[in-house]
Design brief:
It contains 15 helices and two strands. It has 422 residues and is mainly alpha-helical. Strands 1-2 form a two-stranded antiparallel ribbon. The longest helix has 22 residues.
């Protein structure tokens, strides 16, 4: 069914390599740090209202996402919640790439007003004041500085450069530089523990991987791991469809950003410029891999961040997601524009956007401004309509479903009894 050239292309899609090292996080592969990170991931105290955890949106029962177009309970202006499958392999984080490491990514939602909404001072105090968290933290990161003095360490404080009069920013400004550095250090270590945990959420043992192994070893039994329909879909994926151009390698992503021309179907208060603003944010973040909180600044200087320059053409570009376990993570695209894989394939088949959703359950009912109806712009010129038949669409879906992996250790999907590893 496959030519020799096709076999070579397919062979490059599996197996998934070992999780790459993160030299900027010396605790990335520390089992105690991963255990603490797993506990914090499910801990609702790491939020302003005490009711929100990382797992609220990245629900392991929903394949590490929330199953919604956007997390409307928090804000209809947020983007679709990306899954956490194989995030250890990412080069950039968030749809716009505004974080350049998994540990720095973890810090953003903890303070974002329309997500966890808390502050770094609050989280540092929580770790300091909770006996179990403190013991677990100190076993990994060393002795915590004394933070009991409320006049030096307020219950809530964080920098808000665009809101200088905000009480949280005022409280942050009133702290000494040394005390702010203490809080930042604890905050960053929380992110590094969360990253150590999330590096274990790996998908690499799908029926497709078994098939590729069989193809390489001429094992006919393993080659039957996926259906004939999936094989035809794979042939189209690497051939006429050229899906492999952006979804290549064993993680099925180029780790870059593209404007596919997908229209904004849900109301936005202002245009979403995607990667254009993401580049600005990552370059100006004190927590990027070039900064003092990196555990290996030299590694940061060798990273893509060190060579990152912004251009106007990056407007409305969004990150290419991995396709592993994609069948388990609907809806799709950066604002959940498409409900099914069939809808996604139909878009690439015609490059025609559906009508904007003027009425969406759970979202405010406001019209989409005309400028946003084609918020994706014209898209990249490499995109051409594929004009797929119904059979070709079904075959592509069958192939994408063959990337599903059910083998994750279920103990990673729940909160441990204690933050202290045994």
């Amino acid at each position: 069914m496959f030519t020799e050239k096709e076999r070579q292309l397919i062979g490059a899609l599996s197996p998934l390599a070992a999780v790459p090292a993160d030299l900027t996080n010396r605790y990335a592969d520390d089992s105690a740090a991963a255990h603490l990170g797993q506990y914090i991931f499910f801990d609702e105290r790491f939020s302003l209202d005490g009711e929100t955890s990382c797992a609220t949106c990245h629900d392991p029962k929903k394949s590490w996402t929330d199953g919604q177009a956007v997390p409307a309970a928090f804000s209809d202006q947020l983007r679709h919640v990306p899954s956490l499958w194989n995030v250890a392999y990412n080069r950039w984080y968030f749809w716009d790439g505004r974080a350049d490491s998994l540990w720095s990514q973890a810090l953003h939602p903890l303070e974002q007003a329309d997500e966890h909404g808390g502050s770094r001072a609050q989280y540092a105090k929580l770790v300091h004041d909770d006996p179990d968290l403190k013991q677990a933290y100190e076993r990994i990161f060393g002795t915590l500085p004394e933070m009991s003095d409320a006049s030096r360490f307020p219950a809530a404080a964080k920098p808000l450069a665009t809101q200088p009069a905000d009480p949280l920013n005022v409280a942050w400004g009133a702290m000494s530089e040394a005390d702010r550095e203490t809080v930042n250090g604890v905050f960053v270590n929380v992110g590094k523990a969360l990253a150590a945990y999330q590096r274990r959420i790996i998908s690499r043992a799908s029926p497709f991987d078994t098939f590729v192994e069989g193809l390489k070893t001429r094992d006919e039994r393993k080659q039957r791991a996926i259906s004939d329909s999936a094989k035809r879909g794979l042939k189209f994926f690497i051939g006429r469809g050229n899906c492999i151009l952006c979804h290549h390698g064993p993680n099925f992503t180029d780790n870059e950003f593209h404007n596919t021309g997908v229209a904004e179907l849900l109301p936005l208060q202002r245009p979403d410029h995607g990667r254009f603003l993401g580049v600005h944010q990552v370059l100006n973040s004190p927590f990027n891999v070039l900064g003092s909180y990196s555990d290996d600044v030299e590694a940061g200087r060798r990273s893509p961040t060190a060579y990152l320059v912004n251009f106007v053409h990056t407007k409305r570009q969004f990150k290419t997601p991995s396709l592993r376990n994609v069948a388990r993570t609907p809806p799709y695209m950066h604002r959940g524009q498409f409900e099914t894989l069939e809808d996604v394939i139909k878009f690439y088949s015609t490059l025609e956007n559906p009508q904007p959703k003027q009425t969406v359950p759970g979202l405010p009912q406001r019209p989409i401004p005309p400028a946003h109806r084609h918020g994706g712009g014209d898209g990249e010129h490499i995109l051409l309509p594929l004009h797929l038949s119904k059979t070709e669409t079904d075959d592509l879906v069958a192939f994408l479903e063959s990337l599903t992996d059910e083998s994750l250790d279920t103990t990673l999907m729940v909160q441990p009894d204690s933050p202290i590893s045994r």
